Write a sequence for this structure.
């Protein structure tokens, strides 16, 4: 049985805790009870992490692709060996069903193995001029990366934040969410145990605004990689601009799902309901606004509500749980506010709409329909287990609704008309489009958004290139 570990930071390979530092209580969302005390960085800790990371960059920028590949492959092997332990920690501190936590480990294994191959393909190019002049365009690692990852994918987000800079030859100072530190430390430990020099990856925790202001103001940091809300992303982008940092911003979404009359509704529901309630809806690419053509609207809404009522909610560590608690008390509070506001504006509540139990942060799988567009929930990312289902007459009005919001992370559509599929791929304003599928990621393809959902991509070759700069060398 995995025990929740004592918590620490990692600076220069040293486990840092105690010493009169402030602490943060890590809570199990299934019980609401504190399970660990996390030490928070003081300014001196951050300064030390910066100094060590600067040294780490001097070391790692000179590493060969073979060295980087070996570390990434080794870490992937260790994560697989430690899959059960890592997954259990993630569920203890984040709440999601164990099966989902195990998948997060596999996502990291796949990504690290993909990058382990990709490091050999970071080609430059040579331009040979008729005059005899030669120009070489090279990719070089950008420098020290400050990486801030959130609590919703406590293992997967951390793998993304560490994997790309390490593959590129950068060093990283990682501040993962204070709510899910053991998962983050577990992933970083796999890299260190696989031979990553201790100067290359530092793990700090702290008061988020203190940490980000201090790190982003330092001339040592050259890139910010952030995953989280659009509001905080905009705030951090302003801080990063002061120091002209490169940024990768993976922010909020409000996933539209277009469902056309020509589909097999039951088949779509089988996938869409699981997609909606995965991780209690706390997923940036969660399917959120179901934009359903009139001919199948009632069947779709009723089928969704019926499945939602039967969805099995419980402790993520227990067998058979389909949906765990929400990750922190802010989320059920947000559900109450958003669903209450939608109902006040006249929306129908077809399922859920209430908390479950008297301990932990459980909220029932919910369905709202015929929701006025001025309800807060139709404009603000709900980040929770609620499906929003509205009827529309035709393709043009459905596309207009899909593109109405300033977000553009993931969009989905269900139709059997091939010509329409192509039109949708062209017209949907979104970094990722799922056509007849809710699976939109993969180690080998870029994950990222447009508009207020951010810029830059993680995963794929693009994820490594986002941690590199080009240099053009011209020889006469
Ligand atoms: P939040 O917006 O305060 O925090 C989101 C994340 O950003 C957390 O991991 C937090 O530690 C971090 N953060 C906050 N302020 C920071 C700062 N100044 N510097 C560095 N990091 C900072 O609030 P929250 O309650 O944790 O989440 C609220 C909303 O955030 C959700 O409703 C959702 O819209 C969004 N969110 C998105 C993702 C994603 O995958 N894109 C993940 C988590 C949360």
């Amino acid at each position: 049985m995995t025990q929740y570990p004592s918590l620490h930071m990692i600076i220069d390979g040293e486990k840092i805790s105690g010493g009169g530092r402030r602490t943060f209580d890590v809570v199990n969302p299934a019980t609401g009870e504190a399970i660990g005390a996390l030490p928070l960085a003081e300014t001196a800790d951050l300064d030390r992490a910066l100094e060590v990371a600067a040294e780490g960059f001097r070391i790692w920028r000179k590493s060969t692709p073979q060295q980087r590949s070996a570390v990434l492959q080794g870490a992937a092997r260790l994560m697989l060996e430690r899959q059960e332990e890592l997954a259990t920690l993630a569920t203890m501190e984040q709440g999601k069903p164990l099966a989902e936590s195990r998948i997060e480990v596999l996502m990291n294994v796949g990504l690290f193995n993909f990058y382990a191959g990709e490091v050999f393909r970071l080609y430059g190019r040579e331009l040979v001029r008729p005059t005899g002049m030669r120009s070489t365009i090279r990719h070089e690692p950008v420098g020290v990366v400050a990486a801030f990852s959130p609590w919703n994918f406590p293992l997967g987000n951390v793998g993304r934040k560490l994997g790309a800079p390490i593959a590129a030859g950068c060093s990283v100072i990682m501040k993962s969410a204070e709510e899910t530190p053991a998962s983050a430390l577990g992933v970083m430990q796999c890299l260190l145990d696989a031979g990553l020099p201790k100067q290359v990856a530092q793990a700090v925790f702290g008061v988020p605004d203190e940490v980000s202001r201090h790190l982003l103001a330092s001339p040592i940091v050259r890139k910010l990689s952030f995953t989280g809300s659009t509001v905080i992303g905009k705030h951090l982008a302003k801080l990063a601009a002061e120091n002209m940092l490169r940024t990768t911003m993976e922010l909020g979404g409000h996933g539209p799902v277009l469902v056309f009359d020509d589909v097999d509704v039951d088949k779509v529901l089988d996938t869409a309901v699981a997609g909606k309630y995965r991780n209690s809806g706390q997923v940036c690419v969660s399917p959120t606004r179901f934009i359903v053509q009139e001919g199948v609207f009632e069947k779709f809404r009723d089928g969704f509500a019926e499945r939602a009522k039967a969805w099995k909610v419980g402790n993520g560590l227990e067998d058979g749980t389909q949906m765990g608690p929400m990750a922190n008390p802010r989320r059920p509070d947000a559900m109450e506010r958003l669903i209450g506001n939608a109902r006040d504006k006249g929306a129908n509540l077809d399922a859920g709409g209430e908390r479950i139990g008297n301990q932990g942060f459980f909220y029932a799988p919910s369905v709202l329909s015929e929701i006025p567009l001025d309800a807060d929930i139709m404009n603000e990312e709900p980040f929770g287990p609620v499906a929003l289902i509205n009827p529309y007459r035709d393709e043009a009005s459905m596309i207009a609704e899909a593109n109405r919001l300033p977000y553009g992370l993931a969009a989905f559509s269900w139709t059997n008309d091939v010509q329409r599929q192509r039109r949708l791929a062209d017209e949907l304003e979104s970094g990722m489009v799922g056509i007849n599928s809710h699976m939109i990621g993969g180690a080998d393809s870029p994950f990222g958004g447009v508009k207020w959902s951010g810029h830059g991509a993680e995963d794929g070759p693009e994820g490594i290139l986002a941690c590199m700069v080009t240099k053009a060398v011209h020889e006469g």
The pocket of nicotinamide-adenine-dinucleotide is lined by residues 148, 150-152, 177, 208-209, 212, 227-229, 231-232, 236, 250-252, 284, 330, 381, 383 (CB under 6 Å).
